């Protein structure tokens, strides 16, 4: 269950983080500026419709209207909606003319009449160069800021994911090292404890026992059973005894004047057992394997030798 949880975490957590980064980038660069632009365009459309309606109403009622009046109306709507009106006064009047000409509820003569009134007003006003300049140089700073912030957030998020994954990997490695170190320590302690227990057992079974002062001798104990020498190697491992381990033991001990005994807490692999059988068939020196964790069981096997 823990393996599945770890697998899910390792697979889906980075994917979710990366997806979050891409969504942030998408919303910041595409969605948010687009939404802001649409909102702005809707405000402008409402402003434009309101201005055209007002101008038509004034012209239709034969009231005087001038450039200053129109600019005041535009400024008032800009303040109210907090949005810059993008069209010049002449452009607004042109749209009003077009709206009059499309109004089928009044006669064609009246349409031309109002059209010409607005045309005279257009010809009387100067070109609004300031408005055109604003229109040409207008930049949606909110969209720009949103895009910049999104890019910065994306970079920081990506860096955060990288640093987090790096930290998690370092913690996993450190955890594995600690776990491995603890396992090695536990294995050494168990091996020493197992060897000491075997040593006590051999003292009990043999009046003659020798423990070499150096590991270079290649064995742990030398005992005498029924006037025969036995060189004993004690192995406490976490895994089965393999053929290379048997070959290593025999390579160290085969030139000694006595038989060989391996006492281990783990079973031998089939290949290792077959090698021992062949060795015993071909050599006068014998190799005896005793496997067990229970000291009484090991004692019984030693007494059978």
UniProtKB/TrEMBL annotation:
Keywords: Membrane, Transmembrane, Transmembrane helix. Residues 191-281 form the Restriction endonuclease type IV Mrr domain. The keyword Ion transport does not apply. The chain crosses the membrane at residues 12-32, 141-163. Pfam families: Mrr_cat (PF04471). This is Restriction endonuclease type IV Mrr domain-containing protein. It comes from Leptospira vanthielii.
């Amino acid at each position: 269950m823990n393996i599945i949880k770890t697998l899910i975490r390792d697979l889906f957590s980075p994917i979710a983080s990366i997806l979050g980064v891409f969504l942030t980038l998408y919303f910041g660069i595409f969605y948010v500026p687009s939404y802001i632009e649409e909102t702005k365009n809707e405000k402008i459309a409402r402003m434009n419709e309101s201005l055209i309606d007002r101008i038509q109403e004034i012209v239709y009622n034969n009231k005087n209207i001038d450039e200053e009046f129109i600019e005041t109306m535009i400024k008032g709507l800009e303040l109210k909606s907090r949005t810059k009106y993008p069209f010049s006064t002449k452009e607004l009047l042109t749209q009003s003319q077009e709206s009059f000409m499309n109004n089928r509820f009044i006669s064609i003569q009246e349409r031309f009449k109002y059209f010409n009134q607005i045309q005279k007003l257009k010809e009387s006003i100067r070109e609004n160069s300031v408005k055109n300049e604003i229109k040409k140089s207008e930049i949606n700073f909110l969209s720009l800021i949103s895009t910049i912030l999104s890019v910065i957030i994306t970079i920081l998020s990506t860096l955060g994911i990288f640093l987090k994954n790096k930290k998690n990997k370092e913690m996993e490695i450190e955890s594995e090292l600690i776990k491995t170190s603890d396992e090695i320590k536990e294995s050494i302690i168990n091996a020493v404890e197992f060897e000491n227990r075997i040593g006590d057992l051999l003292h009990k079974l043999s009046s003659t026992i020798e423990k070499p002062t150096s590991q270079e001798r290649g064995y742990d104990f030398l005992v005498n059973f029924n006037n025969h020498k036995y060189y004993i190697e004690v192995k406490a491992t976490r895994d089965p005894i393999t053929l290379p381990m048997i070959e290593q033991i025999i390579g160290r001990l085969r030139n000694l004047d006595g038989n060989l005994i391996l006492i281990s807490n783990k079973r031998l692999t089939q290949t290792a057992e077959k090698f021992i059988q062949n060795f015993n068939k071909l050599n006068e020196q014998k190799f005896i394997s005793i496997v067990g964790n229970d000291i009484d069981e090991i004692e019984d096997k030693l007494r059978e030798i």
